Amino acid sequence: QPTECFLSQPEEKQETTVKAKRRKKKKISDILQNTASKPGVPADLQNLLSQHFGENRSVIEIEELKLSDSCFLPSNDLTHSFSSYLKEICPKWAKLRRNHKEKKSVVMLVICSSALRSLELIKSMTAFKGDCRVLKLFAKHIKIKEQMNMLEKGVFHIGVGTPGRVKALVEQDGLCLNSTKYMILDWNWRDQKLRRMMDIPEV
């Protein structure tokens, strides 16, 4: 009897150590939790572009993709609310809004990683947008044909949506970017898994 008890004890210990080891496996959210939030800089986007297109394009084509620093607006230094940030980067919004008459296009395009985040940003820009029409450009509960019909029939000033749906609309000729003056990337917001937009490979 004592020997049986003695033998069963180490087996239990082995099981508990294995379970503990499994629990300690690092998750992506643990790694991202340690990375501090900081405003995006032009180099961040340039690096993403060169990584994405680097394999399929020649050196000359990659050079053509490079954007000058004058193409970039100052990023939100995280002291601004969304409305106050938009007011700072776009002081002549009222004039731009009045002059915009084109269909199938928007003056300002805001890109974020999820539909819920898009709705959150639309609510938080009320102090900025004034008398303008905002269009939701994401896939959740909204068919792409509905969005294409709305863009064809009416004039919209701001589009807020996800990269996948914006890409699909551009490819299907539903959204024209010729009259788009501002493109805002929701660079620092993290989802439930603590991923930012550029941490998601599909984006």
UniProtKB/TrEMBL annotation:
Region (Disordered) residue spans: 1-24
UniProt xrefs under Gene3D superfamilies: P-loop containing nucleotide triphosphate hydrolases
Matches recorded under InterPro entries: Cms1, P-loop_NTPase
Source superkingdom: Eukaryota
Annotated Gene Ontology cellular component terms: 90S preribosome; nucleus
Classification via PANTHER family: PROTEIN CMSS1
Protein's recorded name: Protein CMSS1
Record organism: Manacus vitellinus
Biological classification of the source: Eukaryota, Metazoa, Chordata, Craniata, Vertebrata
